[in-house]
Amino acid sequence: MNLKEKLKGIRSNISLAQEKVGIDHAVEIVGVTKTHPFSFIEASYEAGIRSIGENRIQEASTKFESFEQMPELKKRFIGHLQSNKAKKCVELFDSIDSVGSIKTLRKIGKHARQLKKEISILIEINTSQEPQKHGFLPAQKNEVLECLFEDGLSIEGLMTVGPNTSDQGKVRTSFCELRKTKEWLEVQGKLKLKHLSMGMSGDYKIAIEEGSTMVRVGSLLYGSRT
């Protein structure tokens, strides 16, 4: 099965999951090309993907030398961002989808202003509360609300990584928590957030049923990581 066929299958599953729960909003598919060569990004673009995800600054810096050839392709940083790499991340990426602290957010804002670059942001919430994961905890809603009003930054929504378990009930609970957090923030902040980024290759159907607007798909599209 080629990449276009795989992508078609994922889109079909997204439509079926939305139909099941009676929703029909647009869902962005992010091709997770981390650890794969630049040729995978080119193939993704040819297949119709317009967002790719990378999680290592050094790896992305090497890959991103030929992007003039792919207009409209959005480069999304999806890994944990160390504060000392914030400036380089802002230089390389169009969106940082894993901001887990006010300190990091403010560093991004500082560098974005210096570079006169508009960058979109997703705030990471550790909805499963697993200690090995990064992000705000669900109980830190007020801190997240504060993030949404940082000057000069485009906060587009929230992101979470589902729990590392085969228990679909726990996975669903994690995604439901993110949706409820988004709803609370919208009411308290009197604003609208565009994205709920949740769901990966193994759990994206559940995420879609819980309202995801963005799924990050790697192994389903590209096979095992190199």
Radius of gyration: 17 Å
CATH topology: TIM Barrel
Beta strand count = 8
Mean pLDDT reading: 94
- Total helix count? 9
Main sheet: strands, sense, barrel: 8 strands, parallel
Residue share in helix: 40-55%
CATH homologous superfamily designation: Alanine racemase
The overall number of domains is 1
CATH architecture call: Alpha-Beta Barrel
Morphology: globular
Q: Please state roughly what percent of the residues sit in beta strands, choosing from under 5%, 5-15%, 15-25%, 25-35%, 35-45% or over 45%.
A: 15-25%
The run of helices and strands is HEHEHEHEHEHEHEHEH
Sheet with the most strands: spatial strand order:
7-6-5-4-3-2-1-8
Return the structural class: alpha/beta
User: Can you tell me the CATH class?
Assistant: Alpha Beta
Unreliable stretches (pLDDT < 50, length at least 5) are none
State the end-to-end distance: 19 Å
Quickly describe the structure:
With 226 residues, this protein is an alpha/beta fold.
